[in-house]
Amino acid sequence: MNELFLYPLSLVYSILLKADRYIINRHKKLFKPVISVGNITLGGTGKTPIVIELLRLFVKNNLRPVVLTRGYFRCNKHPILLENGAVNNIDVSDVGDEALLISKTVPQSTVIVGSNRYSNVLKFKNKIIPDVFILDDGFQHWHIKRDLDIVCVNASNPFSNGKLIPAGSLREKPAALKRASIIIITNSDMISNTSLENLKKKLLNFSSTDPIETYYGDFEYKTTDLKTDFDLELLKKSEIYSLSAIGFSEGFNHSIRKSGIEIKGSISLRDHSYYNNDMIKNIVLNRKNSCFIITSKDAVKFQNIDIDILKKIAVLIVKPKFKTGEKNWEQIILKSLQFF
Questions:
Q1: E-assigned strand segments in 143-285
Q2: Which of 57, 116, 117, 220 is surrounded by the most beta carbons within 10 Å?
């Protein structure tokens, strides 16, 4: 699309963003502390793994977290409550891939899916006993007042081309990071030490606290149930392709290589895309003697795929690892709950 046409649209987007913040929405306070995890760019910043890591921290400290998430690209428009790891055969199209992944990965948490997150809390108030709310993708969600804002910045593409949507992929200008309580640099191992230091200096222009650096590690290969170990010998004997529908497939491919596996090719679909049996069957049959590595976010969408095809699908499980700031992260988060 012509750039001269996109720039006015970016200006309109900026005006609507300010109207949403200052005119349309009024901050409403929930009855327990709220921690937001978000970003200033569209997708691919590693937000969901940080949400999961945050949930693990709360569970480890005997706290009951409730996640409030919109549920991107879901078909069902009604609010849905996910409990106990979504064991009731929830269809991923009803809740969205990220919500289902969060629930399955940390079954001790509760996940409420729906666009009006404040109203959804009131709707399910008698069914939840929260110690803390996690507002997923909440940095630009003005409807709910939060006590802490965590913002993820992808080291490989921190500010896109510096332009707002749709001329670029910035949701807000970098100066918005002044609102952040914690800035987390994700994929910190994908750029040089010099580039990482320069990025940290840029971020310190907007924040008085040092950003936390993370990368992905603790690699495991599972089957699509996310529990059973995948046969690594099969991977060694096969040609390997990556298959993903995420915001930053380059980071996924980087993790595969770091795990010690070389890939012959990569198939990348639009973020949050759904899979069906015919699609996967066509991909697999066109690449005989091959195995496919997918993300855990993709795995929850492999609900109705033939068992013979699933035997060729390995899921790479990764966790955010803290290069710097792990103790600081835990102290800030837990301290924010003490004074509520």
A1: 148-154, 182-186, 212-222, 239-244, 265-268
A2: 117
Please tell me the distance from the alpha carbon of residue 140 to that of residue 39, in angstroms, as a whole number.
Answer: 8
**Greatest distance between any 2 Cα atoms in the chain:** 60
Considering only 22-26, 216-220, 248-252, 316-320, which range has the smallest mean pLDDT?
A: 22-26
Domain range enclosing 309: 218-319
- Amino acid letter, 290: S
Q: Which pair of structure tokens corresponds to residue 85?
A: 């790891």
Confidence at residue 27, expressed as pLDDT on a 0 to 100 scale: 80
User: Could you tell me if 66 and 191 lie in one domain?
Assistant: yes
What total of structural domains would you count in the chain? Answer: 2
CA separation, residue 96 to residues 61, 79, 272 (Å): 28, 12, 8
The verdict on 160 and 194 lying in the same domain is yes
| Residue 340 reports pLDDT greater than 80 | no
| 134 and 233 fall within a common domain | no
- Whether the CB-CB separation of 68 and 35 falls below 8 Å is answered with no
Contact 90, 113 (CB under 8 A): no
DSSP string, 134-182: EEET-TT-TTB--SEEEEEEETTSSSTTS-BTTTSSBSS-GGGGGG-SE
Q: How confident is the model at residue 19 (pLDDT cuts 50, 70, 90)?
A: low
| Tokens representing residue 144 in the block | 């709910």
Pairing label, strands 313-322, 212-222: antiparallel
For 263, the token pair is: 């890939």
Report the C-alpha gap between 155 and 170 in whole angstroms: 14
Q: What is the pLDDT of residue 86?
A: 86
What's the pLDDT band for 91 if we cut at 50, 70, 90? very high
Write out pLDDT tens, residues 214-251. Answer: 999 999 999 999 999 999 999 999 999 999 999 999 99
